[in-house]
Amino acid sequence: MTEAEHRSLERLEVRQRQLRRGAVLVRENEGAGELYVLKRGMLMSYVLLDDGSRQILRFHFPGDMLAVSGLVYRRSPETVVALTDTVVCPFDRAEMTGIVTEHPRLAAIIMAVNQMERVALTDRLAALGRTSAKGRVAALLLEIRNRMRVLDKGIDGTFTLGLTQEEIGDATGLTAVHVNRMLRQLEDDGLLSREAGRVTFLNEGALARMANYTDRFSGIDLSWLPAAR
Q1: Whole-number Å distance between alpha carbons of 165 and 175
Q2: Owning domain of residue 164
Q3: Residues 96 and 135 in one domain
């Protein structure tokens, strides 16, 4: 990126706000205000269903832009909660006006990232309808590991999951008891092992085939991006 593009992005991270695990950053149906960049930690976004259950939509990692729906809606369509102690950088949506006007390439990149998120949600929706419970859990583990590997190239087959079985269940449409059973079956099948909160993939190819998983972080084509101004 150019120096001007770097400065434009840095302006989004001038202010910082710390959140403890479990703190609500944005609440569903409340007024949408600021947008955020996740600086450190991990968050999740979810919606509450009519029966009181929770459907987790996304897990967020450092570098992600949060509450982007505030550019479109007056009220937030989802709740965003800290899964760990986190640091977020709030910024006014007027900052996006400047980016779109002054740096169309940055605006195009943000659009591309949002498309990647949309495809990830589409994959999750398809998995809920077409794969087994064991396949859904396997797909989520692969997705989380691949997101972490974007940030840390040293991560390979072993990583710290950082999610409870209830959270895994709320992302895959399963109960915590069912998630526990599926994880044990994946271990019994020789596909992964678990120890002290860390997961190790023992047969990633078989795990991906079972989950009908497509790595959306490979095959990205950004050759169409406009030149920097």
Answers
A1: 8
A2: 131-211
A3: no
